[in-house]
Structures are given as structure tokens and as C-alpha cells.
UniProtKB/TrEMBL annotation:
<keyword id="KW-0808">Transferase</keyword>
<dbReference type="Pfam" id="PF13489">
    <property type="entry name" value="Methyltransf_23"/>
</dbReference>
<keyword id="KW-0831">Ubiquinone biosynthesis</keyword>
<keyword id="KW-0489">Methyltransferase</keyword>
<keyword id="KW-0949">S-adenosyl-L-methionine</keyword>
<dbReference type="GO" id="GO:0102208">
    <property type="term" value="F:2-polyprenyl-6-hydroxyphenol methylase activity"/>
</dbReference>
<protein>
    <recommendedName>
        <fullName>Ubiquinone biosynthesis O-methyltransferase</fullName>
        <ecNumber>2.1.1.222</ecNumber>
        <ecNumber>2.1.1.64</ecNumber>
    </recommendedName>
</protein>
<dbReference type="InterPro" id="IPR029063">
    <property type="entry name" value="SAM-dependent_MTases_sf"/>
</dbReference>
<dbReference type="GO" id="GO:0032259">
    <property type="term" value="P:methylation"/>
</dbReference>
<feature type="binding site">
    <location>
        <position position="119"/>
    </location>
    <ligand>
        <name>S-adenosyl-L-methionine</name>
    </ligand>
</feature>
<comment type="similarity">
    <text>Belongs to the methyltransferase superfamily. UbiG/COQ3 family.</text>
</comment>
<comment type="function">
    <text>O-methyltransferase that catalyzes the 2 O-methylation steps in the ubiquinone biosynthetic pathway.</text>
</comment>
<dbReference type="InterPro" id="IPR010233">
    <property type="entry name" value="UbiG_MeTrfase"/>
</dbReference>
<feature type="binding site">
    <location>
        <position position="75"/>
    </location>
    <ligand>
        <name>S-adenosyl-L-methionine</name>
    </ligand>
</feature>
<feature type="binding site">
    <location>
        <position position="35"/>
    </location>
    <ligand>
        <name>S-adenosyl-L-methionine</name>
    </ligand>
</feature>
<feature type="binding site">
    <location>
        <position position="54"/>
    </location>
    <ligand>
        <name>S-adenosyl-L-methionine</name>
    </ligand>
</feature>
<comment type="pathway">
    <text>Cofactor biosynthesis; ubiquinone biosynthesis.</text>
</comment>
Length: 231
């Protein structure tokens, strides 16, 4: 299976704190409005059938459902999914969560989604290209796919590993493995090999002084990619 058991365990152990905005998941809470608005501006989520691959506790999934999407979240961490499910019950937002691998979901529900999202997940899997391929299979012709991950270069190592995990302690040590980071051109190759086209690339930066995240043209550390499946 295309999953690293230690990665899944790492997220499972923290899962009970997923919706605590001061926890290890604080960065995901803080970037969520930015990525949500970016996706919504491109894909007009209301009424769309959406699947979120590697949804974790459902921060993005639930927010897309709030925008009116018919949202499904999949992950391989049972604990994260239970937290996601409980949270959606509590907030009264309807979301479907399921413990299933992206590749298996792609075999079962090929071509059924208007929008596929896969955020902050590719850098945790052994074969990211296979996840991109599954995303491309899940989306309808004419539909859109969004990825986000971390670039691989000395600055990304300094900011995403040394800065975030050791200096600022925003993330637990060992959250990210530099060797699994993915450059935008590598991701673009996976995307094209899966039959998708790249429509847009966006950088995301964090200013440690103001503690503010922003979307911009700086893709040197964190970045997002918008893709679509040709008709
Ligand atoms: N996408 C969410 C969570 C990111 S954390 C967000 O951005 O808010 C990374 C998530 O990927 C975790 O929930 C982890 O369990 C999941 N994950 C890691 N490897 C996976 C795999 N092979 N298949 C599915 N999910 C995986």
C-alpha cells in the first residue's frame, strides 16, 4: 500500500487536538482561510461534488462544505477521521468521511468529482505520483484538482524543518522529512503524467515577526498548484 505506517501513526497520535487552534495543527487552521478562498475563487465550490484526499481532521473539508460543496474526506488515519466526523456533527455541517486509500477510492468512484483537493499530504507518502494519478482519476473531465506541498531546496529545509520544527517550534520535531519534499517541476511532471494540466502555481509564505501567512509568488518553501482535467 502507498502509505507510510509511521506517518499515519504520527497524525493519529495528535488527532485529538486537531481542532484546537493553538495545537500542533495551528498552522493548518491559520492557512485554511487563504487556501479555501483561493480554491473557491477558482472552482466556485457551492453545489460542487468535492473529495479531499488526506483530509485529516477535516479543517479544509468542513470549510468547503460550509461553502456549499457536497464534500467527502478520505484519509488512512482512523483517529483523524473520527475526530473529523465528531466535529462535523457538532458543527452541523454535513460531510462524508471514509477510511480508504486514494487509489482504492479512484477505482471505486472514478470520474465522479468536480473538484479534488489534496493539501499538505503528498510530502508524507512513499509514492506521491500515484496519489496524483488517483486524484486525476477521481475528477470529472473539465474538473479541477488542487495540491499543496513543500518545495525541496536549502531554503525550504531551513524554513520548513529547522525554522518551523526547531526554532519556532510550530510543528513537532520530525513532522517533515526533507527528502520527501517535492519541487514544483516534479509535481508538474506527476500532474502531466496523470493527464492533467497545470493552470496555476501559488506561493505561500509565513512571516515569523507578524505571524501572518500570505499567498503570493514566492514558491520557494510552501506552494499550491491548481490543475484541471481536459474535457
Ligand atoms: N489535508 C489536511 C491534513 C494534512 S496533514 C489539511 O491540510 O488540513 C496530512 C494528512 O495526510 C494526515 O491526516 C495523514 O493521516 C494523511 N496521510 C498521510 N499519508 C497518507 C496516505 N498514504 N493516504 C491517505 N492519507 C495519508
Amino acid at each position: 500500500m502507498n502509505a507510510d505506517p509511521l506517518e499515519i501513526q504520527k497524525f493519529s497520535e495528535l488527532a485529538h487536538r486537531w481542532w484546537d487552534p493553538t495545537s500542533e495543527f495551528k498552522p493548518l487552521h491559520e492557512i485554511n482561510p487563504l487556501r479555501l478562498e483561493w480554491i473557491n475563487a477558482r472552482a466556485a465550490l457551492s453545489g460542487k461534488k468535492v473529495i479531499d484526499i488526506g483530509c485529516g481532521g477535516g479543517i479544509l473539508t468542513e470549510s468547503m462544505a460550509r461553502k456549499g460543496a457536497d464534500a467527502t474526506g478520505i484519509d488512512l488515519s482512523d483517529k483523524a477521521l473520527k475526530v473529523a466526523d465528531l466535529h462535523s456533527l457538532e458543527s452541523g455541517v454535513q460531510v462524508r468521511y471514509e477510511l480508504i486509500a486514494a487509489e482504492d477510492m479512484a477505482a471505486r468512484e472514478a470520474g465522479q468529482y468536480d473538484v479534488v483537493t489534496c493539501m499538505e499530504m503528498l510530502e508524507h507518502v512513499p509514492d506521491p505520483g500515484a496519489i496524483v494519478k488517483a486524484a486525476a482519476t477521481l475528477v470529472k473531465p473539465g474538473g479541477q484538482v488542487f495540491f499543496s506541498t513543500i518545495n525541496r531546496n536549502p531554503k525550504a529545509y531551513l524554513y520548513a524543518v529547522v525554522g518551523a520544527e526547531y526554532l519556532l517550534r510550530m510543528l513537532p520535531k520530525g513532522t517533515h522529512d526533507y527528502g520527501k519534499f517535492i519541487t514544483p517541476s516534479e509535481l508538474a511532471q506527476f500532474v502531466r503524467a496523470a493527464g492533467l494540466q497545470v493552470d496555476g502555481l501559488k506561493g505561500m509564505t509565513y512571516n515569523p515577526l507578524t505571524k501572518i501567512y500570505s499567498l503570493n509568488q514566492d514558491t520557494s518553501v510552501n506552494y499550491l498548484v491548481a490543475c484541471s482535467r481536459p474535457l
